[in-house]
Amino acid sequence: MTEEPHPTDDAAPLAAVVARERAETAADALREEGVYDEDRGVRPFGDDAVALPVIEPPTETSIREVVRQEPRPRLRTLDDHLRERGWTEAERERAPSSWAVVGTVVLVDVGDSPRPDEVGEALLALHANADTVLARHGIDGERREPDAEVIAGAGDTETIHTEHGTRYALDLAEVMFSPGNKAERARMGEEVSEDERVFDMFAGVGYFTLPMARAGARVTAAEINPASFRYLLENAKLNEVHDRVDLYRADCRDVADGVDADRVVMGYYEAWEYLDSALDALVPGGIVHMHEATPNALVFDRPIDRLRDAAAERGRAVEILDRRRVKGYSEGVAHVVVDARVA
Ligand code: SAM
Predict the structure, then answer these.
(1) What does the pLDDT read at residue 47?
(2) How far apart are CA 81 and CA 126, in angstroms?
(3) Would the N or C end of the chain have less CB density within 10 A of its end CB?
(4) Distance between CA 66 and CA 240 in Å, rounded?
């Protein structure tokens, strides 16, 4: 990839050069430092790096070098890029309106967009720290396997995504990742206390397990999908929490009866079907976080009633501590979570 000329005049804008795989963490650090320039885009730099726009040379963030860049109008939106490619207004209206950058992969639902490959190329131009665009057509079945295809770029769907300091290695063509759960993943790390015992029944690649273990909890995690479990193992080492987690590639119902947990996390849309096992594992006075995909008209009543009924069958009372909408699940259906203390 040819590098752009380096203008010498002092008026030319600055950029901090970092290895491409460090782009997300370095950009976060530059923002922390208050030098990241949100008005300019990230540009490729050589074959393995990117140039992050800065308003002045950083002093704390580790970078390769600071360079000056040719000023150029930023094509700020996907619409700008597609217009530049000659798309008509009617075609541009069918282009995707949202996507997510997960590590070095752009995840997008192309819907009925014309020429998905051109959408992919435009998204790569928008996100220089990405090298692959993966079109996702949905997530299926109990094991939540993505139906996805590469529409642009190198085709490397395995990446490391970093958020709130937690690192998630995963192959986005193999295992699910929900960008919309980001706040909930961070919240789980804030809810736990040092050395409390947690049972994460539907662990995936460690979406909740890792932030909780990094916060000092001792986590027993169950995950039935071999591909997700492989990343769960890898991520425990990657985040240096392997001494605080017990990981089981198993059905959570087969793990539950050996567990005494102060907190049980049920991050699965049909979690209510597993309440027997969850309550088996939860010590009296423990806390459960029960997720559900709930029709808007039934939001919060249905999951709360299900929780209360399952506890009542065991002579246990429920105190609702919190109820949250995590994100939209589908048309008219919300992804919700209910937090409750069970006596
Ligand atoms: N809890 C994570 C979150 O909310 O981001 C992951 C959610 S993902 C939708 C649910 C995970 O549970 C999948 O990785 C799936 O393979 C796993 N799973 C489904 N049924 C299971 C079971 N009976 N025991 C253990 N894991 C299960």
Answers:
(1) 86
(2) 8
(3) N
(4) 32
Q: Is the CB of 248 under 6 A from ligand 1?
A: no
Rounded distance between C-alpha atoms, residue 209 and residue 219, angstroms? 6
pLDDT digits (tens, 9 = 90+) for 314-326: 999 999 999 999 9
Measure 278 CA to ligand 1 centroid, in angstroms. 14
| Ligand 1 mutation target, pool 202, 225, 272, 326, most atoms within 8 A of CB | 202
Beta bridge partners of 107: 100, 134
SS3 label, residue 274: helix
Is 268 touching ligand 1 by the criterion CB < 6 Å? yes
Domain residue limits, the chain: 14-68, 78-156, 176-342
Cα 132 to ligand 1 centroid, rounded to whole Å: 26
> Cα separation of 54 and 123, whole Å?
22
pTM (2 d.p.)? 0.80
Q: Does the domain formed by 78-156 have CATH 3.30.300.110?
A: yes
Is residue 224 in contact with ligand 1, taking CB distance under 6 Å? yes
Question: Is residue 199 lining ligand 1, measured as CB closer than 6 Å?
Answer: no
pLDDT tens across 54-91, in order? 999 999 999 999 999 887 766 679 999 999 888 999 99
Instruction: Choose which residue among 145, 185, 259, 268 to substitute to test ligand 1 binding: the one with the highest number of ligand atoms within 8 A of its C-beta.
Output: 268
- Scanning the structure block, which residue is given the tokens 């782009």? 23
